[in-house]
Each structure stands twice: as structure tokens, then as C-alpha cells.
From TrEMBL:
The keyword Lipoprotein does not apply. GO terms for molecular function: pyridoxal phosphate binding; threonine synthase activity. The keyword Signal does not apply. Its EC number is 4.2.3.1. Its cofactor is pyridoxal 5'-phosphate. This is Threonine synthase. The lineage of its organism: Bacteria, Pseudomonadati, Pseudomonadota, Gammaproteobacteria, Chromatiales.
Length: 463
């Protein structure tokens, strides 16, 4: 399989290069040259497979000969052995709702599904190429810990995660800083999340530095993350439908950067019988407004909500969908993102907007509605939703045959849960005892120079 850029500015590359490149060098996102099709017979045959076996089948056509089947199988098995549930992503019935629990990985959030795989994949590809990768990122919470757990202890990889000192939740901070592997570097910067992100951007913008030190990112634009996430749509569909290709299922997806729901769109394009994909957003509703109006317009600011992993201004994976909506017309994609850069908005015409409405439903859910959903689900069934999941469940009210994706364990968001129902969810083993663990973290001023100097020193010492 070859990979192209949504903006048409790169020569076709293979899967391994696409994974290592992350963002396309022309500023676009990487997409496969074609979307493999799954037949009704395959859907029937796959219905009895385990998550790991299914992952092997779903991923293989996107990877082709580049990774031998037995190697890919081993990578998948290793990646999901860290999950605490034998089904990896179990589907549970909760008072008439179907909840797809994606939070049984080591950091209790759905990002583990993709990042456990991506970490092993990076290690495998680097061993083959003899290269090194130094991951740099800033986090306001969940992504940093999932990325650290994805690559801890891996050969040829170092990871540097910046967080704003004292401004992330104590559990999230401990999840990251209690990882003591030598290749993990936690940096608390004396500033805000925006300061931390600004530093990362400026170091990535320093191209000589970036290439001399093999800097890379693990953000949600990496194609391998999308691919790994599409697997659980197939897995959930099989359990609802029993493998009957006539049976269509909808999914409600708590959405921020559009990675998760795009994985569902990919599954649908491959031939999975998906009825509707519901984009569930919080008050940061750029995507909901787009589905309603065809106008994708940046709001005046990012609102802080009870579902912080979805507090985004622009959805970084949206460009992939736009590419498919415009039938692969890269020139048009590029022109629209030019509009976006100059005016903060882009718009599709009426006929394309009708296709958007056929692909997605969307709803923006307020904090009050989120709390109300946690409360009503708990009182009717005793099941506790995390606030992100509650946004998705609320958005799917009244729909039939819908699977709601549960993106985090409720114990990670004790404050919101406490506000809703006056008690805390029991912690999964991965979160227990965290506060008593030994930690390692260094503190730096919130300047690019300070972080750059630290990186240079640490990387020279690590070689
Ligand atoms: C990252 C995240 C989301 C949003 O997923 P996207 O792929 O960015 O749309 C939702 N819920 C939780 C708990 C997350 O960590």
C-alpha cells in the first residue's frame, strides 16, 4: 500500500515511511492511496475472531508486504497484552445502552489502544532501519501519559513530555512522573499549557535542530493510530450483529481531534455496515457546527469543560475527512486550508454539505447535560460514565442500535463524577497506589532555550 498527502505535495511512500513521517512534509495528512474493501463473506468470517486476530485482518491490507504477517501478529499480541480485560475492548449493556469500554489499557483511557501499538511499531521499524526517534510533546493531561506508556523501555526511543507545572490533575501528573524508565523524561515547565505547547512548536520549527536530534511527535495525526482505532469498530459491530452483514449499527463518539470518529468513518468506507456516526462534542463545538451548516469556523476561544480531552479549537484529523468528502481533490483541500489560515474558516457547498449530513449526526452537549447524563445512567443502572463518555451517551439519546464509545475510566475524572453523583468510581488496578509511588521529573523555565538545552544534554548522555 502506498500513502499520499491530502495536499498532494509528496511522492507516494510506503507504510513504514508514513508511520515515521507522521505529518506529511507538505503540511497535509497522510492517507492510503486506496481504501481496501471488506466483503460480506469476510465480515461473516471475522465475527468470531478475537480482538487481536481481527486487528491482524483489518491492518494487513494497509501494510501489505512491508511487515511479515508473523511479525505483525507478534506486534499486535504484545500491544494488547498490557490490557486488563481479556476481550481488550469489551462491549457492555447498560440500561438499554451499549457501551464499548476502551479504557482497559495501562493509562485507563482509549488512547492506549492506539499508542500501545504505535510504541511497539516504532521500536520494530527503528530496529530494522537502525534509526533513532526522540519524541517531544506537550500535554494538558491524557495524551502525555498514554504516549509515555506506549514507549517506556523501548530501544532507540527517548520521550520528552512537557506539562505545565501544577496545572494538571495530581493523578495525571503521577501517571507520567512515576514511570522511571531511563528513556522517559518528564519536564514540568513553569508556565501554562499554551507556553509548553509553544515551546514544542518552536523546537519543531527549528529544522536543523529537529533533524540533528531526530525529533518526532506522537500526536493523533499518525496514520497508525487511526488504523489501530478502526479495529474496535469491527469488533463491536461483530458482537452486536453476530456477523450478519445486513445488520447496520451506529456509533456515538466523544470527539476532540476527530481521530477516533475518523477511524469509524474509515471502517465504514471499508464496508463495515455502519448506519450513523455521531460526533459528540462538548461546548467546543466546531465540528457540530460544521455538520449542521457546512461551515467550519474557529470559535473565539477554547472553553474549559468537564470533558477536558475534548477541549479543542481545531480538529487535527478533520483534513482527512475533507479529502474524502472532496473525492480526493488535493488542490481543493489545499485551497480550503488556505481559506482557513487566512480567515479562520472554510466552507463546503450545498451538495457536499448534504453528504456530510448523510455521513454524520452531531450534537454539542453542555456541562449541565453531561452531569445529568452521569446521574441518570447511574441511577437507572448503577454504571458510572466518565464525563467524555457521558457526552457521547447524551448525544445518542433516542437512537436505536447504537454503540457508545467509552473513552476513559470514570475514576480518572473523580471531580466531575463526584459533582454528578456524590461518590467516586472504584479505581482500576492501573490507577491504584499511584500517589505513593516514587517520581522523577525535572523543572524548567518556560522557554524554548531552557528545554532545548536540556534535550541536547540528555540526548548526548543517552547515546
Ligand atoms: C483524546 C480523547 C478524546 C477525543 O478523541 P479524538 O480522537 O481527539 O477525537 C475523547 N475522550 C478522551 C477521554 C480522550 O482522551
Amino acid at each position: 500500500m502506498h500513502y499520499l498527502s491530502t495536499r498532494g505535495g509528496i511522492a507516494p511512500i510506503g507504510f513504514a515511511d508514513a508511520v515515521m513521517m507522521g505529518l506529511a512534509t507538505d503540511g497535509g495528512l497522510l492517507i492510503p492511496a486506496e481504501i481496501p474493501e471488506v466483503t460480506p463473506d469476510q465480515l461473516r468470517a471475522w465475527a468470531g475472531l478475537s480482538f487481536q486476530e481481527l486487528a491482524l485482518e483489518v491492518m494487513t491490507p494497509f501494510i501489505g508486504e512491508e511487515i511479515p504477517r508473523e511479525d505483525l501478529r507478534a506486534l499486535i499480541d504484545r500491544s494488547y497484552a498490557t490490557f486488563a480485560h481479556p476481550q481488550v475492548t469489551p462491549l457492555v449493556e447498560v440500561g438499554g445502552n451499549r457501551i464499548l469500554e476502551l479504557f482497559h489499557g495501562p493509562t485507563a483511557a482509549f488512547k492506549d489502544v492506539a499508542l500501545q501499538f504505535l510504541g511497539n511499531l516504532f521500536e520494530y521499524l527503528l530496529a530494522r532501519s537502525g534509526g533513532r526517534l526522540n519524541i517531544l510533546g506537550a500535554t494538558s493531561g491524557d495524551t502525555g501519559s498514554a504516549a509515555i506508556y506506549g514507549v517506556r523501555g523501548k530501544e532507540r526511543i527517548q520521550i520528552f513530555i512537557l506539562h505545565p507545572k501544577g496545572r494538571i490533575s495530581p493523578i495525571q501528573e503521577r501517571q507520567m512522573t512515576s514511570v522511571l524508565d531511563e528513556n522517559v523524561h518528564n519536564i514540568a515547565v513553569r508556565g501554562t499549557f499554551d507556553d509548553a505547547q509553544g515551546i514544542v512548536k518552536s523546537l519543531f520549527g527549528d529544522l536543523p535542530f529537529k533533524s540533528a536530534y531526530s525529533l518526532g511527535a506522537v500526536n493523533s495525526i499518525n496514520w497508525a493510530r487511526i488504523l489501530a482505532q478502526s479495529v474496535y469498530y469491527f469488533h463491536a459491530w461483530a458482537r452486536v450483529s453476530g456477523g450478519d452483514p445486513e445488520r447496520r449499527v451506529s456509533f456515538s463518539v466523544p470527539t476532540g481531534n476527530f481521530g477516533d470518529v475518523f477511524a469509524g468513518y474509515l471502517a465504514k468506507r471499508m464496508g463495515l455496515p455502519v448506519e450513523r456516526l455521531v460526533i459528540a462534542t462538548n461546548r467546543n463545538d466546531i465540528l457540530t457546527r460544521f455538520v449542521r451548516t457546512g461551515d467550519y469556523a474557529v470559535g473565539d476561544r477554547v472553553y474549559q469543560t468537564l470533558s477536558p480531552a475534548m477541549d479543542i479549537q481545531i480538529a487535527s484529523n478533520f483534513e482527512r475527512y475533507l479529502y474524502y468528502l472532496l473525492d480526493g481533490d488535493s488542490d481543493r483541500v489545499r485551497a480550503l486550508f488556505e481559506d482557513m489560515r487566512s480567515s479562520g474558516r472554510l466552507e463546503v457547498d450545498a451538495s457536499h454539505h448534504r453528504r456530510v449530513e448523510a455521513d454524520f449526526a452531531a450534537a454539542a452537549v453542555t456541562d449541565e447535560e453531561t452531569l445529568e447524563q452521569i446521574r441518570s445512567t447511574y441511577s437507572s443502572s448503577g454504571y458510572i460514565l466518565c464525563p467524555h463518555t457521558a457526552v457521547g451517551v447524551h448525544a445518542a439519546r433516542g437512537m436505536r442500535d447504537v454503540v457508545c464509545l467509552a473513552t476513559a475510566h470514570p475514576a480518572k475524572f473523580a471531580e466531575a463524577v463526584g459533582e454528578a453523583i456524590g461518590l467516586e468510581a472504584a479505581q482500576p488496578p492501573s490507577l491504584q497506589g499511584l500517589m505513593g509511588k516514587e517520581c522523577r521529573c525535572i523543572e524548567l523555565d518556560a522557554t524554548a532555550e531552557a528545554v532545548k538545552g536540556h534535550l541536547q544534554g540528555a540526548l548526548e548522555a543517552a547515546v
